[in-house]
Amino acid sequence: MRHQIQADKEQIELTDKEYRFANYYLGEARFNATEAAKLAGYSERTARQQGYENLTKPYIKKYIQERSESILEKLGATQERILAEIVAIAFSNVTDLFEGDWQLKKQSDIPKASIAAVKNLAKTETGVKVEMHDKLGALLKLWELVKQ
Asked: Hey, where are the domains in the chain?
């Protein structure tokens, strides 16, 4: 069975397996090409290679891009919003979470941008353990965007 999809004024045609692969890739497989290939029905032995090959096919890439755009739009994930989150992580400061004596501030006293930078927060016997998102990774992403 073939699936014909209209994408960006262009007709895309995918086989049933390719169609399943792309949809699993965007959904249940969480952008893992090998897992998407397995779920789509490719053999365990060749799933890694098939997943890679499928992601290099222009018409599959186009379908994934088209589907991603509509999903991101429904979720309100705009470029501005994504960049704002990366900026929040890049310029976060763990000290924004604490009082001068290293006691955790009340949530209402913590700037929203600082909260966005927190990956994990857990109470321990001796206080609070804070894990922040990858600040260096966020800074490097921003650097790539602004360097000339």
From this structure: 2-75, 79-146
